[in-house]
Amino acid sequence: MKLSESALAWLFVGPALLVIGVVVVFPLVYSLWLSFTDVNLLRATGPALELWGMRVPLFHWIGARNYTQVLADPLYWDSLWRTLYFVAAFVAEAALVGFGMALVLNERFPGRPLLRSLLLVPWSLSRIVVGLLWIGILDFEFGALNGLLLRAGLVDGAIAFFKEGWSALNVLVSVYMWNQAPFATLLFLAGMQSISEDLYAAAEVDGAGYWRRLWFVTLPALRPIVFLVLVLATVNGFLMLDLIYVLTMGGPGYDTTTVSWHGFKTSFTFFKFGPGTAILYTLTALCLLLTVVYQRLILARFEPEA
Amino acid sequence: MTLIDRRTFLGGAGLAAAAAVLGEGAFCSARADKPVNFSGWVFKPDTVKDYVDFFNKKHGGQVKYDAVPWATYHPTMETRAMAGEVVDVMYCNSANRERWVDNGLIRPLDDLPGMDELKKKMAPGNLEAARSRDGSKVVGLPYFTSIFILMYNEPMLQQAGIKAPAKTWDELMEHSAKLKRDKISDTPYLPNWNNSGSGTMPQFLSDCHSEGAGVFDAKNRVIVDQEPGAARAMERWQKAYKDGLVNPEVLTKTSSTDTHRLFWTGRYAYHTNHSYYLKTIAGEPENSKLAPKKARMAMYPGNGQTHMFTEWYTINAKTKVLEDAWKLARFLGGNLNGDWYVQRQWCLIAGLDNAYPEMYDNPEIIQSYDRWVDLKLLREQYKKGRSINAFKEPWFSEYDSKAIAVVHNIIRGTSTVPKGLKELAALQKSLA
To answer: Residue B408 and residue A269: Cβ atoms within 8 Å?
Structure first.
């Protein structure tokens, strides 16, 4: 039997599509559905789907009630403003530091291969480990940084980085940046290395110095990478949860409670999975919105070379 | 080469099989027909595995144990129930237990053989906590029980010329102020104000009780806004924070375990926390500078009353192996073995107390406790323990979690004491 070209293509792509459907599309659609229902895991009344012998309860449809309930809660709005600050600060820091490190690592100097490898260490660590590591550095009682500052006589007493909410939130931003900036560096570096040397040579012939080459050659050529870095950093910033779990648990008070933490608590501590998923889907909507904005601002006028 | 015929081979094989069966039979009783599924949150899972193995050998069980991370334990168990999986015996914490009762996930235990005897042996406070909200049935056997206690750093008090630990809260504040003034300790007092469910709110209940204040009324409504004792406790907390007597980062510690480890450093004079933490503080020289027994326990200040709670073993209402599940539950949360096997292990290994006072007559237990605490005093403290019934309300876990931020705002002075206490009452009302 001879298969047509399209049938053969489906045959090859089919298994991958099936896996994506089961592990990505189905959970996404199901969790979106849950955000419109009255979920009680222990009383799964209402209709249900039977999938390969597994019962998937659909619960009672309650329309947008979860969303109206969530949006009427002042805690949600407080968390949202805090999240927007967190994301803005994190994206700016991660992009700038990542770009700066990429510029350095794009130059030739002794030890560059080693430095490039070391660069990936923070990014490759689990965020639980990252959190614990930074507790070891910043803790009021036994933190290495306080120890150094005190021994050097630079401070009179230990600094309590997590005492005030504002300070604790900024610590979270910086620790997350430390963890994520290497990935941005990697992307920028890959982008920089794909820029043709001829462009720099031509710019040099025209008398452009380092900064003008950076501004007129490097940055325009990196537009797609900048877009990618911003989108990834924004999504990661919105979803960041594990560092809060390890470093502050959303406190003191609610001062480091972001929307993702609020959604996690609502779902897994209060067992309100309907409102919990509604909270988290508002984040998804925000991420999509910002992706469109970035696309318009950065890529709209970008025409890749043929 | 010796050849054996078919008859000899079959005879030999039969003998070998009989020997294997009899041999095992001599070691253990009849094996259960079906496995018993047992789940718990992750706490010393190797210890649990050891006693599950012991149970399987000694009592002929077929128990399959799995441990689930604490943070997602209860949602995981509910999801598994939703998917139709029956976990026969499950850990359950007090804040979630009543929901499991209300939704029919777990069954009452009163009709099971030997339960009446266990009820007689259980301390009254624990038995009350074991009952369902309406008080009609017992729905769990105790995994462990704990009480908030006051610990003090004896060498530090001696260094400051303080002859005896504080008996009142005023004394504790005076001692702390003196230690700070004399530069013996930067932050002499370490209350358990951490941001988890085992921190700020149990500490709040303890200090309110010690001031003679009720936190919930008979109908489990929050009444702290009408209780002068609660206001006194909160004013003291505000002052301690404002005067720099406490570690300013204790509010963002993520567990009671992290908090108690600070006391290991020997830099604090007083610490309030769950009793079992004194075991590592005063009993583990490899970890703590206050071991052996440089940290001691004193009766809780004020009227001595303090918060007490119990965690549970429960049985799935849909279990198909009730007899075996109950046997396992009695092994875990009762005294099936006749020597308090599991409860004793927890006492010896982790300092976890249990709900059966007669276990404390066991010489091994007495000897073990003697290494880290004055057992007599601890038992006295238990007599003053107060457990709440509000944990049986469906709104409790959400209230208990959201209340932490309100109390933190009081401590930090971003909310006044009367306003904060009113907020707590309003929070409970909004969830009920």
So the answer is: no
pTM: 0.88
* CA-angle at B411, arms to B408 and B416, nearest 5°: 105
User: Could A252 and B262 be called an inter-chain contact, meaning their C-beta atoms sit closer than 8 Å?
Assistant: no
Residue of A nearest to B76 (CA): A268
Tell me B252's DSSP state. G
3-class DSSP assignment, residue A62: coil
Q: Kindly tell me if the per-residue pLDDT of B3 is higher than 60.
A: no
Which residues of A fall within a CB distance of 8 Å from B318?
Answer: none
The partner residue sitting opposite B408, judged by closest CB among A141, A253, A268, is: A253
Separate counts of helices (H) and strands (E) for chain B: 18, 9
- Residues of chain B in contact with residue A41, where contact means CB-CB under 8 angstroms, are 75, 78-79, 81-82
Topology at the third CATH level for domain A73-299? MetI-like fold (1.10.3720)
Q: Would you tell me which CATH number, out of the four given (3.40.50.360, 3.40.190.10, 1.10.10.10, 3.40.50.1970), belongs to the domain B147-308+389-431?
A: 3.40.190.10
Sign of CA dihedral B100, B106, B112, B118: negative
- Residue A303 has what pLDDT? 59
| CB-closest option in B78, B254, B408 to A42 | B78
pLDDT in tens, A139-179: 998 899 999 999 999 998 899 999 999 999 999 999 999 99
3-state secondary structure B174-241: HHHHHHHHCCCCCCCEECCCCCCCCCHHHHHHHHHHHCCCCCECCCCCECHHHCHHHHHHHHHHHHHH
Interface test with A, best of B246, B251, B268, B314 (most A CBs within 10 A): B251
Chain A to chain B, count of Cβ pairs less than 8 Å apart?
Answer: 93
